[in-house]
Amino acid sequence: MQKNNRNKLINELLKSSDEKFNDEELMHMLLEQKLSTDLSENNKRSSLGQRASDSVAKFAGSWAFIFTFLGGMAIWMVLNIVLDTDAFDVYPFILLNLVLSCVAAVQAPFIMMSQNRQEVKDRARAENDYQINLKNELVIDDLHKKLDAVIENQKKIIEALSRADIINMNAKGK
What we know:
This protein is an all-alpha fold. It has 6 helices and no strands. The longest helix is centred in the last third of the chain and has 80 residues, at about 95-174. The chain is elongated, with a radius of gyration of 34 Å.
């Protein structure tokens, strides 16, 4: 929504710039327009499923998950080996393989959803950075032109002062 308003404003400024505004007025209007956006606002508006996928992906990609998972598997195997004939999952651990497959099958879509959300966030961040960089480029270009004009004016002033000094010296010498 904010992007559409911004684009509309920029288009209106460009259409009316030739008729109503000089470069300085356009530059001030550009400087007054805030381009950066707080991307963390998008996270606050995410759904329960999106937040869950982010949480699962964050935990599943951590050392805590790896150590917990390895510990759980070790306990499962040791417990079933110790229980021997009363074990609920005897040696080839078929039930453990089923549990591992189910965990992988459920975990993969959560991670994919989280990656897709991260891609959207990255795209928004890149667009935001591009707009800010473009604005900065325009401002720097304008400042460069103004600085060139100041330097040119200084040269003219120095030349005028030099001519005035020469005239004064000639007047004193006569």
